[in-house]
Every structure is written in C-alpha cells, then in structure tokens.
Amino acid sequence: MIHKILLFLKLILITGISMAQYVEVQANYNSVGDCVFSASNNAKVPMYLHINFADLENTTFNEPLPYIKKVEPGFNSLFTLQRDPDADIPRFNYDIATFRSNPTADVDLDFPYLIPFKKGESVSVFDVKSIGGFWGNDTPDSWFATGFMAAQGDAVFASRNGVIAEVVGESRTGESRYWYHTWTNSITLLQPDGTLICYHGVQYNPEQLVVGQKVYAGQKIGELANKKGELIVHIFHDSLFTKKLSFVIPQFVINNNGDAEILNVVKPYVVFHPEAIRGLEMTKREKRKILQKN
Hints:
It is built from three helices and 22 strands. The protein has helices spanning 2-13, 275-278, 284-290, and strands spanning 16-17, 23-29, 35-41, 47-57, 67-71, 74-81, 91-99, 112-113, 122-126, 146-149, 155-157, 162-168, 186-190, 196-200, 202-203, 214-215, 220-224, 230-238, 245-248, 251-253, 260-261, 269-270. The strands form five sheets. Strands 9, 10, 12, 13, 14, 16, 18, 19 and 22 form a nine-stranded antiparallel β-sheet that branches. A four-stranded antiparallel β-sheet has the order 1-2-3-6. It is elongated.
C-alpha cells in the first residue's frame, strides 16, 4: 500500500516550478519514504533559491534557516526530508522564491575593488546624482553609485572577479521579467559574495563576452560608450527581509600596496592593479594562468 502512495505523491511532487525565475524544484520520494529535494537551474548563471516550509509532518527540516541555496546551472542536489521511522511518510507545504543575487549576502565592506580602467591612467570621480532608468521608472528609495570620468573609447576593466549575468548593447530584447535592470550599454556580473556589480556606459564585444563566462579582476570587459566619458558603477543585491535592493558603498584600490578607500570627487586617481589584489579570489591554477605566476 505504501508503495502506491509513494508513487502517487511522486507524480504530484515531481516538479514545483518557481515562477520568479528559471529554477525548477523536484521533491521525489524514495523507496523508504524519505523525500529527496533537488533543483534544476535552466539559466546560464547561478541563481539563489529560497525554500520556506509552512507545514511539516512526520519529518524534521535540519538545514540552517532561512534556507538559501546557490544553485549552479544544471542539476543541483538540495536536501532530504527523512521519514520518521515510527510515522507515515513526510507531508509538507512549501513556498519557493528565486533571486538573481544572494538575498542574505554577507558583504565585506572593506573589500578592495580595482578602479575599472587601465593601470597607470589618471581618472576623476564624479558625484552620481541619479540612477534614473535603472529599473524603469521605479528608482530605489536608497541607493549608491560611483561615477568615473575618462574618455570615450577608453578600455574598461573588471573591478573584481565575477560571472557575466547580463550584457546589453544599445538596445534591449527579450522578456523584461528576465532583465537585471533596464539600462542599455551595460555589463552586469554576479560576484563571489553573491552581490551584483553593474558597469553602465560600456560597449562590449559579443565575441569576447557571453552570459555565464567567468571574468577576472583586472580583465578588460569593454570600452566606454558614453560620449561624455562617464562610467557608472554600482554594487547591489536582493534582500530577503526588506524585499528591496541593498546597495554597497565600495572601497577602491589607490596604490600598489593594495590600500583602498571610498573615492573622493575632489581629486583625480591613478589606477593601480596590484597582482596581490587581482589574485584574491583566484585559485592557484587561475593565478598561474591569468597572472602568469609559477
């Protein structure tokens, strides 16, 4: 009898689809009545999955709460709800939400970001007055962005390691619900700490950058497209608790020693890309390959 029940419930639970994004969650019963959870991420970049159980019967949920799981593209194992040996099979209700960034990100506010231009160049910083159009007409209540002034056509470099989440040229296509924001001429990366960084005012080469590609600190990602020579950089992530975006005030490297500070609009800065900073989030193999270290 229990095998018939398990088969019936397996057909019911085989796939729970998160409408917010690309992630499909599967909850399958095994032969002893445990329920094994997995997820398939159909996107080309990692996503963050939140599962919240409303009711649990005949089992306990032993994962840390809130349950946030970074799901890589493709298949991901999640957890198992083990059957209480003295009770019936596990029964439960749960809700799913997906996020493009880590909604509980533990952000290092002292992380040393590289100034995103060619090392040795001198650039100035300007006060960004507005991020209008970042998400249509809906401007966040609280936000922060860093503005750089250079020259149209100047090369733009990644300030930190990341995975390309979105690249946009002079116009946008596709369904807006999959967009990371509404800006054009932009490159958005998912960073190792789960935050997103957006470079706005950049022209990219589609033969060199594709969604899902890993980019390293100090790597060229494009050129300034803005006629005024303006580049706007902001770092942000979803928030599980406030349901709003949280913005990060970054510190940028100001010398070869790797010292970093919040940039001041009243003075120009020389660009430094110390190898020690570039290699902070690289593996040994990546250091040998990218930094040509032995």
